[in-house]
Write a structure and sequence with these properties.
The chain is an alpha+beta fold. It is built from 6 helices and 6 strands, in the order H-E-H-H-E-E-H-H-E-E-E-H. It has helices spanning 4-17, 25-34, 40-52, 71-80, 86-108, 144-169; strands at residues 23-24, 56-61, 64-69, 109-115, 121-129, 132-141.
């Protein structure tokens, strides 16, 4: 029987290795915590250990932390993947298959805002597909609240904005 902490780390690596895009901490947590494999604090420790070991990278944008598998993480997974039980692998595969589009869309649509040197705020909006930016848009607004609202609406309205621009410009 292996140490449970090692299993949680391998599960995280396995999930990241099964997709062609980053996953967020929240997405991975949703699966592992909902299945009752471990608790929140232990899972956060596993994320931290994997980042510290250079097996995954973590990039925080606004309130999301996107995780990606590194070459070292991929090599580790290839070597130890058989230590993840078949039942767990099947559960992960089913979760990723059932939620693939939702998971991909959540990390492909990003937004952040910041205070510009002019004193105004800028909302930077991005829509990607397979890590290739389809649309990048920066909008200057007079205050933080407006910038935050634009970023919040981008998640729901990005397809409409993209379609409008393509239709109008072509």
């Amino acid at each position: 029987m292996q140490e449970p902490q090692t299993l949680y780390k391998l599960m995280i690596l396995y999930m990241l290795g099964k997709v062609e895009f980053p996953l967020t901490k929240a997405q991975i947590s949703e699966f592992i915590l909902d299945k009752g494999y471990t608790n929140y604090m232990t899972l956060q420790e596993s994320f931290g250990d994997l980042v510290d070991a250079g097996m995954i990278t973590a990039e925080t944008v606004r309130n999301r932390t996107n995780l990606s598998l590194t070459k070292e993480g991929e090599d580790t997974l290839n070597f130890f993947e058989d230590r993840i039980g078949e039942t767990i692998r099947k559960e992960i595969d089913a979760f990723l298959q059932d939620n693939k589009l939702k998971l991909r869309d959540e990390v492909s649509i990003t937004s952040e805002y910041y205070k510009a040197t002019t004193g105004e705020y800028e909302a930077h909006l991005v829509a990607k597909e397979k890590d290739i930016p389809l649309l990048q848009l920066t909008i200057s607004v007079p205050d933080k609240e407006s910038a935050s609202a634009i970023c919040d609406h981008w998640t729901d309205k990005n397809q409409e904005v993209y379609q409008y621009l393509v239709k109008t410009l072509f």
